[in-house]
Design goal:
Blueprint (H helix, E strand, L loop, with lengths): L21 H15 L15 H11 L11 E6 L2 H22 L2 H7 L10 H4 L2 E8 L1 E3 L5 E3 L3 H18 L3 E5 L6 H6 L5 E10 L17 H4 L5
Antiparallel strand pairs: 1-2, 2-6, 3-4, 5-6
Helix pairs in contact: 2-6
Organism: Parasedimentitalea marina
Protein name: Nitroreductase family protein
GO molecular function: oxidoreductase activity
């Protein structure tokens, strides 16, 4: 956390420590991979409700992410109200129509074809929760004085990954949605100009006949994403 008063460095003992053997580490790493590879981006949601406590705990987990100077430059807005979700859908679809009608450019639209997306976003109504992630580009002390946050995109990106992982761990499916521009979310959700909306995360349970794009499950092999120097 950051405060206007001077805070001196003070070291404390590591509060949590995992003592695993090499074999246990290998097993744990593989088990996590086996879990996370079953995460899917889903657009088809049931109306089964999700307890607020689950959403709060997943966001609490996201809040443990590392950040530049520990400023924690993020804010999450969780929405379950149907009328509010519908307002977001209408505003998002308005921006999406501009995108798909040429604003994106031919190359971008071609890249999206195998994903099967368009300007119709029913999941913004159907998912029981929407979580809007904001990046705080700067903050304010209690007296209104402004201070800078550091490594904001990197910090918020890590926290967003924590959130998606926590939601998957809780047995939920998600979809990350990034209408462009998204400034309508600041006014709609009462967030200050210092914050930039990064994405809308739809959260819920998949329908029995939920589909995913085949191409979305084609992940690069390890030798294409890893270089080892040893």
């Amino acid at each position: 956390m950051f405060a206007k008063d001077h805070i001196e460095y003070e070291a404390v003992d590591l509060p949590d420590r995992a003592e695993l053997s090499d074999a246990e580490m290998v097993s744990a790493a593989r088990a996590f991979y086996d879990t996370i590879k079953r995460r899917h981006t889903v657009r088809d949601y049931t109306d089964r409700p999700v307890p607020r406590q689950v959403i709060e705990d997943c966001i609490r987990a996201a809040g443990t992410a590392p950040s530049g100077a520990n400023h924690q430059p993020w804010h999450f807005v969780a929405i379950s109200d149907p009328a509010f979700k519908h307002r977001i859908r209408l505003a998002a679809e308005e921006e999406e129509r501009k995108f798909y009608e040429g604003g994106a450019g031919d190359e971008w639209l071609k890249a999206l074809e195998p994903i099967g997306t368009n300007d119709d976003k029913p999941h913004l109504d159907q998912a029981p929760w929407l979580i809007v992630i904001f990046a705080q580009r700067w903050g304010h002390f209690d007296d209104g004085e402004r201070f800078k946050n550091y490594y904001v995109p990197e910090s918020v990106g890590i926290a967003s990954g924590f959130l998606l992982t926590a939601l998957h761990h809780a047995g939920l499916v998600t979809l990350t949605h990034t209408p462009n521009p998204m400034r309508f979310l600041n006014e709609m959700l009462g967030r200050p100009a210092s914050e930039k909306p990064i994405m809308i995360v739809a959260v819920g349970h998949p329908t029995k006949d939920a589909k995913v794009p085949k191409v979305a499950k084609m992940k690069k092999p390890l030798d294409e994403i890893l270089t080892v120097a040893e």
